[in-house]
């Protein structure tokens, strides 16, 4: 089979989509813009999100790229990363002004900054809030991140400004779990108890911006938190508009009706937008690298057969994705990006575990598994452009070896609910950015407790469980020796590659565009690698337009 030169989306070739988008859709694009994108207001930053609507803004529940940028502006962690760097050397004080750990890495103590205020008059942030927040992310059935915090044992609060966390197993890098991301965000106990479910959409935090209002399927508006501990923000307001259509986002950005947008994962699209926009717009390919994987649910036949999973892996050509997405995509042979601490390089992986493109081998494996004529299988897929492109490219390749894949395409929010809450999806594509160390993706996708069918499971879509993998993982995180951690992480990845619950496809960066007049409040030098966990720029009190 030859490589496709015109991958298709919704029946149009890539070139046709681009040509139509550039030349033909501009006239109609404004009709689908949110009303908030049409007028500039003083000291207001307008951001266009690649999403149809809000999901949930409770930081311990939300996972969607439509929600986490908003959450990151509302909440604080005990510690935080520098705006352009995400690694353990870039950790700075946030709600905690200092911290230390015991010699055996099992007890971590944080000393809170005094006088930090919650939004909307909910008072001072105290150790009781932190303890409540940590217990919630560890224990609540609603918490998406329970597996990541299950190592926490007793949480002590000897006074209003001290939090002592006892771990079940030693972890010298535990401080990264307390950073401004996901379960590390601290929620307000009083507000949660007073507001109940309303807290999920109108949260109260202690970050630089506070919730103002939400207009369904249009926008969410935040205003400056004047009592923010690091100083009142320069911006009066931040408006996040929901603009799922790439042509509409492009149109609004070119017309300077949006100041920052999430871009399309497409080199031609990014180049055209930059060339069409007045001023001096910038495009940044943000890291950490998003890990792109295809999860194969072992409880759905015939995916429980390892020969079938290997056949699927050999039917997929990673070059297809690089050709379609351009430089934002890089094919890899491990589910942990090579740029992460503990991620395997291609050269470290034996040839037989790389599962290279080989359709004839795929057919032979299917025959050996008892499916000489292939089989039919169905799954759900997000309508979002990057997910849909991945699915359709795989769909085309699988058809060449006799596997007929039927896609039930859902809006992104419904798809997230389908795969996490409803446990649907025989084949699940994930595009995941995490703190760049192997343990995070391992915990969420590969540990036995991560299986979606388990009470503690959330994103183990493949229903994978191998105790040997868990042992290697635990040995890695318990060690303070970087070499031992690398060795055990590598051992765990080799186990997973042999079992093959997940086909590693590659990594993607996150393209984001900003107008030349946007001052982020920090410098990004030309050519700098920028890492930012919320799929968008970190906003600071100094951010201005």
UniProtKB/TrEMBL annotation:
Signal peptide: none annotated. Its main location: periplasm. Residues 91-449 form the Solute-binding protein family domain. It is found in: Periplasm. It holds the Pfam family SBP_bac_5. This is ABC transporter substrate-binding protein. Belongs to the bacterial solute-binding protein 5 family. Gene3D superfamilies: Dipeptide-binding Protein, Domain 3 (3.10.105.10), Periplasmic binding protein-like II (3.40.190.10).
């Amino acid at each position: 089979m030859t490589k496709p030169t015109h991958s298709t989306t919704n029946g149009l070739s890539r070139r046709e989509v681009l040509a139509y988008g550039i030349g033909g859709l501009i006239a109609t694009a404004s009709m689908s813009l949110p009303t908030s994108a049409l007028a500039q207001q003083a000291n207001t930053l307008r951001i266009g999100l690649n999403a149809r609507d809000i999901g949930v803004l409770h930081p311990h529940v939300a996972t969607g790229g439509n929600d986490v940028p908003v959450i990151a502006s509302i909440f604080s962690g005990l510690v935080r990363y520098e705006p352009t760097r995400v690694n353990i050397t870039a950790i700075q004080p946030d709600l905690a002004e200092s911290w230390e750990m015991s010699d055996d890495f099992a007890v971590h103590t944080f000393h809170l900054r005094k006088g930090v205020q919650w939004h909307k008059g909910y008072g001072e942030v105290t150790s009781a809030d932190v303890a409540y927040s940590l217990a919630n992310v560890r224990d609540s059935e609603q918490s998406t991140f329970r597996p990541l915090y299950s190592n926490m044992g007793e949480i002590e609060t000897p006074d209003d400004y001290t939090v002592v966390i006892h771990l079940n197993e030693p972890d010298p890098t535990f401080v990264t779990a307390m950073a401004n991301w996901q379960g590390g965000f601290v929620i307000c106990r009083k507000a949660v108890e007073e507001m109940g479910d309303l807290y999920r959409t109108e949260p109260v935090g202690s970050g630089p911006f506070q919730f103002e209002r939400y207009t369904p399927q249009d926008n969410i508006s935040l205003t400056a938190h004047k009592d923010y501990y690091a100083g009142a923000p320069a911006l009066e307001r931040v408006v996040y508009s929901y603009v799922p259509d790439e042509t509409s986002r492009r149109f609004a950005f070119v017309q300077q009706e949006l100041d920052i947008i999430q871009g399309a994962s497409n080199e031609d699209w990014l180049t055209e937008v930059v060339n069409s926009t007045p001023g001096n717009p910038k495009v940044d390919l943000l890291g950490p690298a998003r890990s792109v994987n295809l999860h194969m649910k072992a409880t759905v036949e015939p995916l429980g057969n390892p020969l079938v999973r290997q056949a699927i892996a050999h039917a997929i050509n990673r070059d297809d994705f690089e050709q379609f997405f351009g430089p934002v995509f890089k094919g890899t042979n491990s589910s942990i990006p090579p740029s992460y601490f503990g991620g395997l390089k291609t050269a470290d992986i034996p040839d037989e575990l790389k599962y290279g493109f080989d359709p004839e081998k795929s057919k032979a494996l299917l025959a050996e598994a008892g499916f000489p004529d292939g089989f039919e299988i169905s799954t759900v897929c997000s309508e979002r452009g990057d997910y849909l492109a991945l699915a359709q490219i795989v769909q085309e390749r699988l058809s060449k070896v006799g596997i007929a894949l039927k896609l039930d395409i859902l809006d992104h929010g419904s798809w997230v609910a389908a795969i996490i809450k409803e446990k649907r999806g025989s084949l699940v594509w994930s595009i995941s950015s995490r703190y760049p160390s192997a343990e995070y993706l391992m915990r969420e996708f590969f540990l036995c407790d991560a299986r979606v069918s388990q009470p503690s499971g959330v994103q183990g879509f493949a229903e994978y469980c191998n105790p040997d993998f868990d042992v290697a993982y635990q040995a890695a995180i318990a060690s303070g020796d970087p070499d031992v951690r690398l060795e055990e992480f590598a051992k765990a990845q080799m186990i997973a590659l042999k079992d093959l619950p997940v086909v590693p496809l590659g990594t993607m960066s996150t393209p984001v565009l900003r107008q030349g007049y946007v001052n982020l409040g920090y410098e990004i030098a030309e050519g700098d690698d920028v890492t930012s966990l919320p799929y968008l720029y970190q906003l600071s009190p100094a951010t201005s337009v």
